[in-house]
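RETRY 2/3 - previous attempt timed out on the joint model. Re-submitting the same 580-residue input unchanged.
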Amino acid sequence: MSPDLPLLIAKATFDTLRMVAIAGLIGSLIGLPIGIFLATSGKGELFPAPNINRLVGLIVNATRSTPFIILVVAIIPFTRLVTGTSIGTKAAIVPLTIATIPFFARLVEAAIRDIDKGLIEAARAMGATPTQIVFKVLLAEARPALTLALTMTIVSLIGYSAMVGAVGGGGLGDLGIRYGYQRFRPDVMLIVVIVLIVLVQLVQSAGDRLARRFDKRSRKN
Amino acid sequence: MTASVPKPLSDDVSVAFQGVSKCFAASGESGAFTALNNVDLNVGRGSITGIIGRSGAGKSTLIRLVNGLEKPSSGKVLVDGVDVGALDEAGLRNLRRSVGMIFQHFNLLSSRTVFGNVALPLEIAGIDRRAIEARVRPLLDLVGLADKHARYPAELSGGQKQRIGIARALATEPKLLLSDEATSALDPETTQSILELLKRINAELGLTVLLITHEMEVVKAVTSDVAVIDKGEIVERGHTFDVFTHPRHETTRALLSGLPGSKLPDAVARGLKPAPSVGDRAVVRLTFFGATAERPLVSQLIKSVGAEVNIIAGTIDEIGGKPYGSLVVAYAADAETSGRAERFFTENGLVTEVLGYVA
Ligand SMILES: Nc1ncnc2c1ncn2[C@@H]1O[C@H](COP(=O)(O)OP(=O)(O)OP(=O)(O)O)[C@@H](O)[C@H]1O
Ligand SMILES: [Mg+2]
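RETRY 2/3 succeeded.
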């Protein structure tokens, strides 16, 4: 082991965390309203706009079915426009964010559609506006499911962020490819994989615990 | 659709349906469907009015018209004289804040405590926290669940959940309470306690209650007035006592036959024939109420008709606070015995119905 290896790994881990955090934050902030819109704008729903709903759904599907690596390459001009560069950690955040938006939006949509229609009916009968229904009923009731959706999104993001390493994105994936693969250092590859596994585990169990805390649907304590 | 000119509304009508029809547009395979057909009905202010009918008769559709969750295809629904169909969204929201509603499956928010659930309609109405606090506490007292204010719905029994549903429906101090099968998910005992609560609220707060159900027991226990709905049409209506004691429509009779005491034992029901042959016995239902319910009729009946009277089924009950009895007896169907029996019934002012004949 070279003496600077721990430093390299620490730096790569930090880069990965930064990419995941920023892309996760921006992506889910944009994905959330899109998901809410998808779940509430069908025919006869709270904000009926079936045509726009279908259009947004189409765009979301198209983005989601594009393989991530192709997405990274395809949006290089846009990435350069936003960050001024097409390689490195900062540049990688752009495609990661773009991939997060539709992913999270669909999970949000599913979480909201899962809520008992009787609750919407009850809120309507109380004289709630559609906006009040979204904030006081839908988002409140979906909180455990939304927490799990966010967890799942971050876990996927960690995987994607390793992938952008293949195209010069920085972070753990980049380290694994450059040292582990190109310089035949299986020990580095192993450490990279272990760090990724630990990260995913940490995120998953923290998310599960939080979701359980929010979930009041079953008797416990 | 209706040709009748709407009658001027007297002050004591809370909800008026005037020639109301509701068609659901065709969707996919199924064609357009008429769920309600030319319904005329007045709900008296301060009454507990029941609407009873079989599954799919249109009960939910009817009650949802009252707070505008559904729009009539034709006709008018008036709540305190206001045409619900003519209100815009803001007007509807205002109306809904003065009309409470409770549901079969309670529809409580699992993410909110008992307190939070009852507070929800007040938050929606934009009332400040302090006022909400002051309003919710007495409501929880009223429904007997003040000690559960910090619990979540998942920690409550069905009956307790419905009490919370009722407290929530009363939060905005409505004049009218709509109940859509509020006791259908509850056991008989819990049902009774919820019905008692509704009765108390009706008496103490002067609240009009419009409740729909498919259970005659519920209608019998709490309502002062009832309407029977069948395939989207009101087929019978009146004071509950009258409808129970003199059911005219076949659907009403069928619904009533489910009540305990009015059901014939299977062995008798199976052998029932529409016309007598020699040696058969007539099966007759006697209905008595008010003063007749208190006289020793059975012994007198046996004295005047002869010892050959047997009792097949019977019940003594109270409907709308009035005593009411029903007795099914059988006696020889020959002309002489029947003649004596009929004389006895007429003399005593009993309502009778020949159910059939058995060997
Ligand atoms: N949104 C709708 N679209 C089409 N048909 C509907 C709709 N809502 C109700 N119906 C139909 O209208 C009829 C009456 O329905 P409704 O829910 O009022 O019955 P109900 O008397 O409340 O029955 P239940 O006792 O089962 O609740 C049913 O045949 C139902 O299929
Ligand atoms: Mg119904």
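The interface with chain A takes residues 67, 69, 92-97, 99, 101, 103, 105, 107, 109-112, 120-121, 123-125, 152-155, 168, 172, 178 of chain B (CB under 8 Å). Closing ticket.
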